[in-house]
Amino acid sequence: MACSQGSDVFSQSGLYSNHQDIGPRYAGVLLGLSNTVGVLVVVFGMAATGYILQQGSWDDVFKVSVTLYIIGILVWNFFSTSEKILE
Which whole number is the average pLDDT over 35-42? Predict the structure, then answer.
């Protein structure tokens, strides 16, 4: 878990600079939107964790977490770009 979270730090530089790459004039708005979505995911994630723990165990929580993390990695790798999209 520590290695996973530690290596996740390397993705943060690409994530936060990508807003400036795809829409220089709207980088602040894009960052705000992506952070809002991230916070909403955390809110729903807490509720989902409680529900999963009522039905199962922490192993199930980690399985869901790993699955969503892998899906996120795949979506990012297939659809991310550094090309300017917004003028």
Answer: 92
SS3 5: helix
User: Domain boundaries in the chain?
Assistant: 13-79
Query: Cβ distance 23 to 85 under 8 Å?
Result: yes
Instruction: Average the pLDDT over 7-29 and give the result.
Output: 82
| Dist. CA 40–CA 64, nearest whole Å | 17
Enumerate residues 6+ apart whose C-beta is below 8 A from 84.
21, 22, 23, 24
pTM score of the predicted model: 0.69
Whether the predicted pLDDT of 84 surpasses 90: no
